Amino acid sequence: MGTGRNGSRACIRFLFAAQFAFISDCRLHIKSPLQTGQDAILSPEQGHYLRQVMRLRCGDKLVLFDGSGGEYQAEITRLAKQHSACHVQKFDPVEREFPCHVHIVQSAVRSDKLVPVLQKGTELGAAGFQITRSERTPVKFDGGKLDRRLQRWQSIITEAAEQSGRTRIPYIRWRSSLPDIKTHGSCFALHTQTHLRWPQARQAISQASEITFAIGSEGGWSHRDIKMLEELGFTGLRFGPRIMRTETAAPALLAAIQACLD
After folding, report:
1. CA-CA distance, 112 to 50, in Å (whole number)?
2. Residue 227 in this model has a pLDDT that exceeds 80
3. Of all residues in the chain, what percent carry a pLDDT higher than 70?
4. What is the pLDDT of residue 235?
5. Distance between CA 228 and CA 100 in Å, rounded?
6. What CA–CA distance (Å, rounded) separates 77 from 165?
7. Residue 173: C-alpha distances to residues 43, 78, 154, 192 (Å)
8. Which residue ranges form the domains of the chain, and what is each CATH number?
9. Which phi and psi angles does 256 have, rounded to 5°?
10. d(CA 196, CA 61)
11. What is the pTM of this model?
12. Residue 91 pLDDT greater than 70, yes or no
């Protein structure tokens, strides 16, 4: 590569080409276990995505992962409206997950608030999400409506994992009440009625193997909610000097933990 102006232009072209190559990479999550040397059958929706969105053809390469860790290099062997398949060629044991499993308990909120929690939380490394009813839950999820919401939430999480390079898919669970929450490792509930602040808890959090964070709805946790969370083993935590919106808290926490671990 040359120096001076020509060298700079060549460098810019190289960086642009490298960035474009990365952005154009295609990753798909396959629900069934993958194995090298075998074919992976794609869903009609995945086939449509490859044909109409990514504009790929038979013979093109892509990355597959089944959520058990690592990912696979594969080649498209068939692209049809109702039947598409790839041949799995090589396994890469890459690991991009947090060494600390961070579980997010999110009080149920409206869909426009919850979607960014799931999407950004997945991109930032959350191990899973528990959506729970609390005293100030502004919406009702029952019966068929809840089933449809769970399917949509799982789809959002899967797509975020595909896009962000995750090798594992976070779980999503509905909890009808706070006592139904499953706790993992050190447990913290975000609210302002506590003296414990992030700087005081940061070292313990950065050294934990599992953490559960509980985040309230738009109105925050009620006094009864906080008492119940304490009975479940949660410690109150103030995160920063300002009060965040409910959809901001989980991504901000995950980013802070990533900074501690990095």
Report:
1. 28
2. yes
3. 90
4. 96
5. 26
6. 23
7. 24, 35, 9, 26
8. 25-92 (2.40.240.20), 101-261 (3.40.1280.10)
9. -65, -40
10. 50
11. 0.85
12. yes
H runs (alpha helix) in the chain: 4-24, 44-48, 111-123, 143-164, 198-207, 223-231, 246-261
Tokens read off for 144: 């068929």
What distance in Å separates the CA atoms of residue 124 and residue 16, rounded to the nearest whole number? 25
pLDDT digits (tens, 9 = 90+) for 138-187: 777 766 788 899 999 999 999 999 999 999 999 999 999 999 999 999 99
Closest residue by Cα to residue 213 from 189, 194, 232, 192: 189
| Segment 169-183, tens digit of pLDDT | 999 999 999 999 999
Residues 140, 135: Cα–Cα separation, whole Å? 12
C-alpha closest to that of 159 among 169, 150, 149? 169
Residue 261 has pLDDT above 50, yes or no: yes
Q: Are strands 84-92 and 71-79 parallel, antiparallel or unpaired?
A: antiparallel
3-state DSSP of 143-184: HHHHHHHHHHHHHHHHHHHHHHCCCCCCEEEEECCHHHCCCC
Residue 96 has pLDDT above 70, yes or no: yes
Q: Which positions ≥6 away from 201 have C-beta within 8 Å?
A: 188, 235, 237
Q: What is the mean pLDDT of residues 183-205?
A: 92
**What is the spatial distance between Cα 212 and Cα 216, in angstroms, rounded to a whole number?**
13
Checking 10-19 for CB contacts under 8 A at 24+ apart, the result is none
In sequence order, the 6+-apart residues with CB closer than 8 A to the CB of 131 are 106, 107, 108, 114, 153, 172, 173, 174, 175
pLDDT of 15 > 70? The answer is no
